[in-house]
Amino acid sequence: MANEIFAKGATERREVLKGAAGLASLVGLQACAPIARGSLSSAALPSSSAPRLTPLRIGRDQLIDVKCCLRPLRAAGPNLGTEIVGDTLVIHNYGHGGSGWSLSWGSGHIAVGKALTVLPTKIAVVGCGIVGLTAAVVAQRAGLQVTIYAREMIQQTRSFRASGSFTPDARVALVAPAGPGFGDLWEQMARFSWKAFRTYLGVQGNPVEFGDSYQVSDTPIERRKWPVNPSITDSFETKGLPQQNSEFAHFSERIKDIVPQAVPLAPEENPFPTAYATRSSQMHFNFASYGHILLREFFERGGRFVNRDFSGPADYATLPEKVVINSTGYAARDLWQDKTIIPVRGQTGWLVPQPEANYGVRYRNVSMMSKSDGVVVMNTNPDIGDMLGVGNSMELPDRSNIDEALSIIAPLFAPTAPKRG
Ligand SMILES: Cc1cc2nc3c(=O)[nH]c(=O)nc-3n(C[C@H](O)[C@H](O)[C@H](O)COP(=O)(O)OP(=O)(O)OC[C@H]3O[C@@H](n4cnc5c(N)ncnc54)[C@H](O)[C@@H]3O)c2cc1C
Hints:
- The strands form 2 sheets. The chain has an 8-stranded mixed beta sheet with strand order 1-11-14-13-12-6-8-7, covered by helices on one side. The chain has a 6-stranded mixed beta sheet with strand order 2-3-10-4-5-9.
- It has helices at residues 2-27, 40-44, 100-116, 130-141, 175-178, 182-198, 236-239, 287-300, 313-316, 332-335, 399-409; strands at 63-74, 82-85, 88-92, 122-126, 145-150, 208-217, 263-264, 276-285, 304-307, 323-326, 341-351, 359-363, 366-371, 374-379.
- α3 (100-116) crosses α4, α3 packs across α6 and α4 packs parallel to α8.
- It has one domain (60-413).
- The chain is α/β, with parallel strands linked by helices.
- Helices cover 28% and strands 21% of the residues.
- The structure holds flavin-adenine dinucleotide.
- The site of flavin-adenine dinucleotide has 42 residues, from β1, α3, α4 and β11.
- Flavin-adenine dinucleotide is lined by residues 69-72, 94, 96-102, 126-132, 150-152, 157-159, 162-165, 167, 308-310, 327-331, 335, 346-348.
């Protein structure tokens, strides 16, 4: 029934959009939907080719959680270095910014590779967030016995307060501290992870899935660029915090051969009542089933979990395992006195799962993705960009920010929403 209603509403909207397409030639609309005239895409499509999306139920009555968390942005990128504490080799694996889920396999692969160089039979992993648990499984798959020591198991960690998409270069490093060599390391981690996640596609419980992700807008969609602002003379180097967006490193161009890119939609392909739209396919992670599957593999391979709180590096040397992977995320800032870790606050709202509507939308400053574990909503400020939340270590949720996001995006799903823009 809901499908029928939406399909009818969509037909009405498409009629409106057809009108808009007619107007487009007058107002230069074609510039934002640059599908070549006569190309297969525009010539072969039926006049009304927008997909019939099941509308998402957007409203405060659907809101079941608001979570807040800190991205562990490390200025030079994740720490994968090693150090000796007493008689123990510590291999670091922390500081993945807004990319910890996305880089977890590649990063774990590198950390375990370093552990294997001293030929251990058993190792410890400190930390059971997505980075530590994944490294533990990588080590087991390489034949090692693994004990995880941590204050919290994955479900209670900051990792479970993320949003859960493949975003491998989100707030992952700053250009100058990371240096020119980091791009190659990042690419190695991103490609390895992408391949590893693909092995979970189609697995029962949908731990990893693809969904269509629409960016819709009332004005032409352009990729925002952040050139250096010469009037800002301070930087991470002088202040210990980035001062402008151009300090953030971005690498996604390096893997665009494997990661689906956004394509502009012609008006008749746009299922939303906006003048402009793009569509891409987004890989995302369903925390509940993914966490269970990883933990199950860890325990089935004989892994042990020990609940333990570490107060400093010296504690690592008291472990019976003499090779330890340190995956303590943001906590490494105090635990290891790594003050190059910068808190980047972020929060997500969660609506009741709506598995019948498996897609995401970005509109104005709000992004939303419908996943098996809930519809995740984020309210960002495009004018602030990567600087949003930088240096803010306040981890209490602010519900009003999510309420605002819902009120911004709800009109897109109103059955008779008028065309905007
Ligand atoms: C709003 C938001 C959205 C995000 N979205 C995404 C996304 O879409 N995709 C993506 O890839 N990334 C995303 N991230 C980033 C991602 O959440 C982090 O990079 C990731 O969670 C880091 O994982 P971790 O395992 O290193 O750390 P944590 O999850 O913090 O795990 C640390 C572990 O160490 C243990 N520990 C810490 N201190 C001690 C101690 N003293 N003694 C014992 N144990 C200790 C903890 O108990 C825990 O087990 C997002 C982050 C935020 C804030």
